[in-house]
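Below is a complete specimen:
___
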Amino acid sequence: MPKLALTTALLLLLTAAAYAQPGPPQLDKEYGVSALGGAKIKAPAWNAVRTDEAVLVLEQAPDPAQKRPFYVLMLAIEEGPPAGAEVPWDKIKDNIIKAATDEGRSLSLTLGDPWKGAAGFDGLYMSGSFKGSDEQQQQVGLELIALVKDGKLLTVSLVSDAVVPDTTTKILEAIAATAALGG
């Protein structure tokens, strides 16, 4: 009987721990940018901290009670390789790093695996770390999916103080999978 009680207690504890882990947020709002004919994604109803024609930045504040780190989601659109051309992923990565450097930030980025989760797009997963300007010395994790279609490059990035593959990657992939061109 004690073995059964111990097993039951362990199962209850594991079940409670599984329920305590934060799940992926609901993708309940559509966001978009208008440059180059536009692009849109579905994402959680997070706070919009920057919106312009080519860039959208959303933020989710941390909540220690729910074991949720902060998240910053960025959607950006720019001209990409011409339709049908080979995608120069190394050059795209270098351009992303240069743009961060030009803004006074330090970014390391590594090319990952091809990603085919968004209909009609060629995609590539990238990951790295990001350090803000001199005032913002905290280093954070960055995951990014670069999507190319019809001569356009769409990047969907997720920054967090705790990049956890089972959580942040799933959030990023779920959002990037909703990507569509057009406004």
Remarks:
- The helical segments are 2-20, 89-102, 165-176.
- The longest strand covers residues 139-149.
- The chain has three helices and ten strands.
